[in-house]
Design a protein that fits this description.
This protein is α/β, with parallel strands linked by helices. The protein contains 14 helices and 24 strands. The protein has helices at 4-7, 165-173, 224-237, 254-257, 283-293, 302-308, 324-331, 352-361, 393-401, 414-417, 422-429, 456-469, 472-482, 487-501, and strands at 11-14, 17-21, 34-42, 45-52, 62-65, 72-84, 87-96, 108-113, 116-121, 135-137, 149-154, 179-183, 197-200, 205-209, 243-248, 264-268, 296-299, 315-317, 339-343, 366-370, 385-389, 405-408, 434-436, 450-452. The longest helix has 15 residues, at 487-501.
């Protein structure tokens, strides 16, 4: 986690850790025993940093009161040092995934650290806006779902993150369950000592946060004891449920997933996880064990199933899709502008040189890039390339509805060849012709309005042709092609396959939780 308050400061690497420059206001408060910065407060939780005069003991915790129905412990991670003037203090970062609305705290928060109380003004506005969410703490992990059919989703991202396959499938699958519990990496930021917390989202989906002391799952394997404790807390919550189904959507959840008392265990292999630089090298071991235990293995791409499938493994291709309702609200009656658009994360597989070359050749076209830039451009962008940053999903769909051409400029690699982009279906559902690099299978080139181009000259020519051919007929054709790819239909296929396979979850073949 990167705290915004230090994000633009000069940082140098010291022998005993990174040294950050504190914001200028701390020059006027060198006498204070604690420096505190809250960087983010909103629907995605609260994060920031704290710098006491001297290092904290291993037992010290930051406790916050005010934004939630009861006090919450915040885990502290040391991150080098922070300097203001001649002072140099130990720096600790904190984060809690629990949402904090701007009006929930009554004007101020009380923070306690190592026996010292601090009063901190509540942010006037959430820095990451979103609807207020109800937070419910569960005393002693008491059973919550008596007689209900519950789906537990173990995800690679949190619910508040941009709408991807994880959230879309959860939403569509929720129509077949009484409750959907959604756990993501934020569960590992819910510090030890906290009660389990349920956070309302939409419909029947609720985010669940269980107290944890682990570094989160991208970085290292959970210890056996930690996994057992997380699964035990979850099993107690679910002990009176009529039936539990587990959908694991990231292999590092395997130590927890195999200990959950359930009727069905499904592994949805989203990507070729081992190809990502930021994922730990031993993730394939977790994946192999998860595949061996699963009643059903699903994936959005044939290449992933080919890699994981075997004689003893039941597999099902579940491609990505789109939400017809979200798309329809933004597409109806939208005026099309002379702009080409990309919606999604800008990661190392985003081909900046290709986009820049196309923009320089087409100066009258506005190129809009919607998403978080984690892979910066190699040089100053042309004036007609505009970075809009991360937008809420409805806003991103609105940008699509007012565009004329959509882009997927991915570098062709083993990683991208196994990708079935959600954005492709959303582009088509918005009636936009798509220009993409040939990481997609050749069959996509047979769909009217989709062009595959592998170099700057061809990519530019394809964009120019797409603008020339844009019209109501092509828009209708693309939208009809997308109609078969709704998330509801994807969820129905998954459930049909699961029901056809019977019961097989080895953790608890009766389908009932422990009494």
């Amino acid at each position: 986690m990167k705290a915004n308050g230090l994000g633009h400061s000069r940082v140098k690497q010291e022998r005993n850790g990174a040294e950050h420059c504190a914001p200028r206001r701390f020059l006027l408060s060198l006498h204070r025993p604690v420096w505190l910065q809250i960087d983010v407060s909103g629907a995605g939780g609260v994060s920031g940093w704290i710098a006491p005069l001297t290092p904290l003991t291993g037992q010290a915790q930051l406790v916050a009161s005010g934004p939630w129905p009861q006090s919450v412990r915040l885990g502290l991670w040391q991150d080098g040092y922070v300097r203001a003037g001649w002072q140099r203090r130990p720096l600790y970062r904190f984060h809690t995934p629990l949402p904090a609305g701007p009006h929930s705290s009554g004007g101020s928060w009380k923070l306690s650290l190592a026996g010292r109380d601090l009063v901190w003004p509540s942010p006037a506005e959430a820095t990451r806006p979103g609807p207020a969410r109800q937070v419910t703490f569960v005393e002693n992990s008491a059973p919550q779902f008596a007689g209900q059919r519950v789906l537990v989703i173990l995800s690679s991202i949190d619910w508040i993150f941009r709408r991807q396959r994880q959230q879309q499938l959860a939403d569509s699958l929720s129509r077949s369950f009484d409750t959907v519990l959604f756990l993501g990496p934020g569960s590992f930021d819910h510090a030890v000592g906290n009660l389990p917390a349920l956070v309302d989202t939409e419909g029947r989906v609720r985010s669940l946060f269980l107290a944890s002391s682990s570094a989160w799952i991208w970085l290292r394997t959970s210890s056996e004891g930690e996994a057992k404790r997380l699964a035990g807390d979850l099993n107690r919550l679910l002990s009176r449920a009529a039936e539990v189904t587990v959908l694991a959507m990231f292999p590092a959840w395997e130590p927890v997933a195999r200990q959950i008392a359930c009727r069905h265990l499904v592994y949805d292999a989203l990507d070729d996880h081992g190809s990502f630089d930021h994922v730990r090298a031993d993730i394939s071991g977790d994946e192999q064990r998860l595949v061996a235990r699963a009643d059903l293995v699903t994936a959005p791409h044939e290449r992933i199933l080919d890699r994981l499938g075997g004689a003893a493994v039941r597999t099902l291709l579940v491609p990505n899709g789109y939400d017809p309702q979200a798309q329809k609200q933004e597409t109806d009656g939208a005026a099309r502008l002379a702009r080409a658009i990309y919606v999604g994360a800008i990661e190392p597989w985003f081909d900046w040189p290709l986009v820049i070359a196309a923009a320089e050749r087409l100066p009258v076209v506005r190129f809009e890039i919607v998403g978080q830039v984690r892979h910066p451009p190699p040089k100053v962008l042309p004036e007609n390339v505009v970075l809009l940053g991360e937008l809420p999903h409805p806003d991103a769909m609105q940008r699509l509805a007012g565009s004329s051409v959509a882009l997927i400029p991915f570098i062709v690699s083993d990683l991208t060849r196994a990708v079935d982009p959600v954005k492709l279906y959303e582009y088509m559902a918005a009636g936009l012709p798509v220009v993409t690099t040939p990481f997609l299978a050749d069959r996509w080139a047979q769909v009217p309005g989709i062009r595959l181009a592998g170099n700057a000259e061809d990519f530019t020519a394809a964009i120019r042709q797409a603008f020339e051919e844009t019209g109501p007929d092509l828009r209708d054709s693309l939208q009809r092609a997308a109609c078969e790819a709704s998330w509801d239909s994807r969820a129905a296929d998954l459930l049909d396959a699961l029901r056809a396979g019977g019961t097989g979850c080895s953790a608890n073949p009766t389908g009932r939780g422990p009494d």
